Amino acid sequence: MFKKIVSVAFTCSFLFSCQQAAEDVTKRDAAKVEEITASEVSIMPKKNSSAKAESEQISFTATIKYMNLEGGFFGLVSKEGKHWLPLNLEKEFQKDGAVIKVTGKAVMGLITIQQWGTPFSITDIELITAASKAPENKNLQ
């Protein structure tokens, strides 16, 4: 019986010391966090969960591509090969294969079901070359 009591006492003291060590580490880490000065905090980028357009407008020439994924959508492929997901492509420009000059802003932080390209809000669009082929999806005609 004496052995059991000593064993339980030893186990309890061991567990208590482990808990105390964990609390000491937590307090030490918290103290390190408090050491960050205000100037260091201002350098850190602010995370914003809401989507917003970049302030700088960009223009590029792109080919409109119909993508038969996630219910179908139109994407823009720039001459450099970058993929853009237009958020407000007018119906008259929704033609697979058309070449356009587009101006607008990238929308950062937006998650789409398409998971393709950088979301892009169009402010100006100009048709350069009309589509030369019929759409692959019969619903688009």
UniProtKB/TrEMBL annotation:
PROSITE patterns: PROKAR_LIPOPROTEIN (PS51257)
Sorted UniProt keywords: Signal
Signal peptide location: 1-21
Protein name per its UniProtKB record: Uncharacterized protein
Source species: Colwellia hornerae
